[in-house]
Amino acid sequence: MKTIQMTAKTPDIHALLARRKPQYSLEAPFYTNPGIFELDMELIFGKHWIYVGPEPSVPEAGDYITVEIGRTSVLIVRDDDMQVRAFHNVCRHRGSRLCQEQKGVVGNLVCPYHQWTYNLQGALMFAEHMGEQFDVSQHKLKPVHLRNIGGLLFICLADNPPSDIDDMARAMEPYIAPHRMADCKIAKQIDIIEDCNWKLTMENNRECYHCRANHPELTISLYEYGFGYAPNPENCEGLEQYQQTVKRRHAEWEALGLPSNELEHLDDRITGFRTERLPLDRAGQSQTMNAEVACKKLLGDFDEAALGGLSFWTQPNSWHHFMSDHIVTFTVLPISAEKTMVRTTWLVHKDAVEGRDYNLDNLTAVWVATNAQDRALVEQSQQGIRSDAYEPGPYSPFTEMLVEKFCNWYVNRLSALVE
């Protein structure tokens, strides 16, 4: 384990971790302190599997994307054999970045500085003026660990990444496979910058306590009793009806070969995750403004539209929604202690035609609105946490269970890795 050098401005991380009160939010330095942010980048984003985007981000040979994780730039490219590979976006000559754009197309990877040229497998092919003794085989691009799970791309910057990614892959691929992400295309991708710590972005995603009051577009297709309620005589019948609906729909979907039951491993594994297919309200087809499909051409081999929504959450930085007609996938990448990038990607069938099979505004309306609302909420939280009046507050045991699991995972991972 690497020892992180603490500065006078960094609080005692061991004391903060030791006094973390279960079922309560974290202390302010976890959201505001630059020293703790550096710990997060080194020990959380530097040593765990990070979701970086869907496989259709690089659909053809030569297509690439770059992903920025702190000071590290990672290049993800599809090679001539159609394999997706990841490399550090650093020339082996004098360190120049190879690809400057967030996405593009290349034949080979050519350094813009001195034109060292690499093939798409990362091998150095050409380096002028280096002499006869120069061995190109010793100057390949540095690889980054990459796993493709059902079309979702995860990378790990550690030399020895957590091996339990295999467990997540075995569990999740049967859930995701029917949606056939490899046969999808990106219809739209939007990046937003939130002026908050990345953990606030993730915590906000892990609960729907706030949904009814803040997300009128999203809640069109969500069952009210799926938000989580403290049971009482007034709502017990509604809660029971919702639970029976989930049970019935799970049985129907399982019979169609669609795994649906909850798998919960958010805080008991290094590579934490959770999944469940849940029914949607009203038309029950998709997360749209009328709960009907946004794309007429369904995914995979689906011939039924009302297949609910498969949700998949991973620690530390992603969530995903798979429906019969489209997929929405989210990655969260920290920028600084109080600034975070959220990338939202909408995917439809690769043969779907915009204007005929789907309208882009209709496809994206729910999450464009929801993201803007969430941005305001997390930024207000960040502002409040900066105040001297802030102190950790209690989580609802009925609606914020997954927030507690996120924080528990985070605290446990830091505790295990920090020296």
Side by side, the strands of the main sheet go 11-17-16-15-14-13-12
Largest sheet: 7 strands, antiparallel
Count of DSSP helices? Answer: 9
**Could you give the count of β-strands?**
17
CATH superfamily of the largest domain: Naphthalene 1,2-dioxygenase Alpha Subunit, Chain A, domain 1
Radius of gyration: 22 Å
Query: What is the end-to-end distance?
Result: 8 Å
- Average pLDDT score: 96
User: Based on the structure given, which CATH architecture of the largest domain is correct?
Assistant: Alpha-Beta Complex
The secondary-structure class comes to alpha+beta
Helix content: 25-40%
CATH topology of the largest domain: Naphthalene 1,2-dioxygenase Alpha Subunit, Chain A, domain 1
Poorly predicted runs of 5 or more residues = 1-8
β-strand percent reads: 15-25%
Shape: globular
Could you give the order of the helices and strands?
HHHEEEEEEEEEEHEHHHEEEEEEHH
Number of domains: 2
> Which class of the largest domain in CATH terms?
Alpha Beta
GO molecular function, one term: dioxygenase activity
InterPro entries: Rieske_2Fe-2S, Rieske_2Fe-2S_sf, Ring_hydroxy_dOase_asu_C_dom, Rng_hydr_dOase-A
EC number: 1.14.13.-
Family: Belongs to the bacterial ring-hydroxylating dioxygenase alpha subunit family.
